[in-house]
What we know:
The protein is α/β, with parallel strands linked by helices. Helices cover about 45% and strands about 20% of the residues. It contains 11 helices and 14 strands. It has a 6-stranded parallel beta sheet with strand order 2-1-3-4-5-13, sandwiched between helices. A 4-stranded parallel beta sheet has the order 7-6-8-9, sandwiched between helices. Helix 2 (about 40-55) crosses helix 10, helix 3 (about 70-85) packs parallel to helix 4 and helix 5 (about 135-145) crosses helix 6 (about 165-180). The longest helix is centred in the N-terminal third of the chain and has 22 residues, at about 5-25. It is elongated. It starts with a helix and ends with a helix. About 45% of the residues are buried.
Amino acid sequence: MSFLKKLLVTAAFSAAMFVNAAYAENVKIALVVKSLGNGFFDAANKGAEEAAKELGDVDVIYTGPTKATAEAQIEVINSLIAQKVNAIAVSANDADALVPVLKKAMERGITVISWDSGVAKEGRQLHLNPSDTNLIGETIIKLAADYLPEGGDVAILSASSTATNQNAWIEAAKKVLPEKFPKIKLVATVYGDDDSAKSTDEAKGLLKSYPNLKAIIAPTTVGVVAAAQVVTDEGLIGKVNVTGLALPSEFKKFIDNGASQAVALWNPIDLGYSAIYLAHDLAVKKEEAKPGATLSIGRVGKVTLDDTNSAAMAPPFQFDKTNIEKFSKIY
């Protein structure tokens, strides 16, 4: 074999070894949540780990701030950029504030998607909604209206005032009120920042400010538990119904004691699972996120991106006395 041929063979072998080595190391995908210590996100992480096990080449980095603020999330994301992760899947505390740091991540070759609570389009490649925004908005009002045949005053206890998902759901809820629920009067919207203590104080404030309040609607798993506990502690079961979006495992006792008639949610395990699948396929398979594209979310199915590169996973599911026992053992 000539020297030139030997050189070419050696170079080809070295290149092949380099490629194999590059893919031998697992893909690092960061699942960035609004705040740690939140049961909803802990459940999502279970799904993320399930997806990682199925895919076989993924290491999930489950992380987030201790307080649900955009500033704290920016610090977390900067750290992930420094670690040179392959992908970031973030549930955002602020749709716009995270854009600059996420653009920096994408410029460094990191795949960026948002899930649950979205980032503005320029700050991510795609967004996975847990469900259809308008359907969630209508559902949270219907959960209250179904148990108020004569109508009445209701109030919303949300997460933070900048939370993309909650704000969108609340606006959708307001739109359906006049036509579909004319007897329901929304008297106030307050914010508990997904903090149990603050949500408790806000719920107490609503009951004090609106003595004729018939229902508190909390589209946040932290707020809905806090509000139900306040109604229980203040002896208002049967007078004020608490509803919204809740984890069955955390909320079962309030369905059982009558502080709530029904709540809804999607499966957070499926949501975390789907987020990892999407991030993986964009980072590894180089799937293109563009309007009209249909992408796999593993065992959950497929999603098709709309004009904003967003997609919805599944419709919300209602939990009441007939089924919450079963689902409380799952998530």
